[in-house]
Amino acid sequence: MSTAAPTSGPTSGPTSGPTSGPSSTRAAARRRRGPVRWLADHLVLVLGLLVLLYMSVPVLVVMLMSFNDPASRNSYSFDGFTTGNWTDICGPYQLCESLVRSLQIGLLATAAATLLGTLMAFAMVRHRFRGRSAANLLIFLPMATPEVVMGSSLLALFVNAGAAGFLGFWTIWIAHVLFCLSFVVVTVKARLAGLDPRLEQAAMDLYANEWQTFWRVSFPLVFPGILAAALLSFSLSFDDFIITNLNAGQEVTFPMFVWGAAQRGIPPQINVVGTIMFLVAMTVVLVGELGSRRRAGR
Amino acid sequence: MSTRRGLSGYLLLLPGGVWLALFFVVPTVTLVATSLYDPSGSLQLGYQMTGHVQNYADSLQAYSPQLVRSFVYAGTATVACMLLGFPLAYAIAFKAGRWKNLMLVAVIAPFFTSFLVRTLSWQYILGDNEPLVSFLRTIQVLGPEGHLLATPFAVVTGLTYNFLPFMVLPLYASLEKIDHRVLEAAADLYASPFTAFRTVTLRLAMPGLVAGTLLTFIPSAGDYINSELLGNPRTRMVGNEIQDLFAAGDYPTASALSVTLMAAIVVLVFVYVRRAGTEELL
């Protein structure tokens, strides 16, 4: 806190000018502090932008390295420019297989987690029942469990159930649905809690039954939240390493491929995949943003 | 209110609840049980449940340095996330104007390249032959033989980087909700900007700060990717050991260590949330 407080402190005062203070002496004091205030105002912005820069450096490095032509397997430096990695993504053994595996697991886990989580969110926001706080705790806890603990407890279960030999695609899927579920509930709940329940009452008053009310009114209104939850699930699933690694058996997902490659020497194609994922996600975000602006009539 | 009583709430809750019970509650119980198995068993021979509490003493004796290190690294990274995250969240909430959405996207954008790929790019950034190290050697911040990679600094940098968005987003959400009129009122009551910041802004940002702290501290305490890819054998964290013990098939010791990690986190979080004074969180 010690560095954040003094720099952002002075900016927290009113910025709306002299009209906000009843006394002209303070307005004068404010004018006297003008240059200091200007600097402080902009200092926070500059600091914020510097932090953003720090956050984007690794992404820029990934993009740069996707064009690297490494001199040897263990070379970490930029040895030469090539577009060969982009035309030969599947070159490294098992890279594309692991990508396909991650996509399959991501889609199946997203489908299940979104369905189960949306139902739970409706239950939590639109229904009163005993044991609500217990349910809340049960939904919250998985998010507060370190991945290695969650992964190891699932592994302990599978091993004790005599399923150690069946570790693979479906155990990964079970684990991914599990850790995505809580995030779906929280995301959909947030959207649902912001909706006026009177819209649903109005539908019922106009003789819509529960089913029609849900599909014609509630669902379309909650849909952006469900979509956001699904995207979040997919990226969580696609990106997970720790839990997956513990429950994967012989199966290899993309993060596991990267992990293995990190021990042997990293093929530059990994950076191509990282760049493509970034570009695809940014496209989705921008299209979504434009879409919502258009719907808002701006 | 449109909240309804009756069975349908339970029916909606049932499928997800069963999933959580089967694959979260039961495994947690199993993990505790496994941590008490006789360590002489194996995956092939099976394990004997002998209430072998000794596993805890053994694992603590062998791995307490890694356990302590995990909390020190995670704590340092969390403080670093606060120092970096607060100005950023503050700038987005109060200074960004119409660039707000763009800056928010920039915060989550790095998420989209894979976690592992991003962490690997730190190997390059902090590498011995790369511009950063050369520059730091030139200005004598680092000695001529100084390194960044394979040091505790690199591990904490990686943790800070990877979990920073988890600090920024809740902080931003809290700061965003602050009514500017409250700050104007503070100024009208002759609070200096610093006093206003300390007594109003910071106080109102506390829920975000608490949530952000938990969201950065808990996952970084259990993380082992950063210490594996950016550290050396002397920077191993408890997650590395748990993973390796499971891989080696020593389930009782691995489970005991895992339960110890969870218990330590629960205690720390409980004390922290109590002291931070936002009990509505738990």
Key terms for this structure?
A: 298 residues, mainly alpha, 13 helices, 71% helix, disordered N terminus, B: 282 residues, MetI-like fold, 0% strand, globular
Task: Explain what the structure shows.
Chain A: It is a multi-pass membrane protein. Chain A: The chain crosses the membrane at residues 39-67, 105-125, 137-158, 170-192, 213-236, 269-288. Chain A: Residues 1-29 are annotated as: Disordered. The complex is a heterodimer of chains A (298) and B (282). Chain A is built from 13 helices and no strands. Chain A is mainly alpha-helical and 298 residues long. Chain A folds into 2 domains: 61-92 and 268-297, no CATH class; 93-266, Orthogonal Bundle (MetI-like fold). Chain A is globular, with a radius of gyration of 26 Å. With 282 residues, chain B is mainly alpha-helical. Chain B has a single domain, classed as MetI-like fold (Orthogonal Bundle), CATH 1.10.3720.10. In chain B, 72% of the residues lie in helices and 0% in strands. The model of chain B has no long low-confidence stretch (mean pLDDT 89). Chain B is globular, with a radius of gyration of 23 Å. Chain B has 11 helices and no strands. The interface between A and B is large, with 108 and 106 residues.
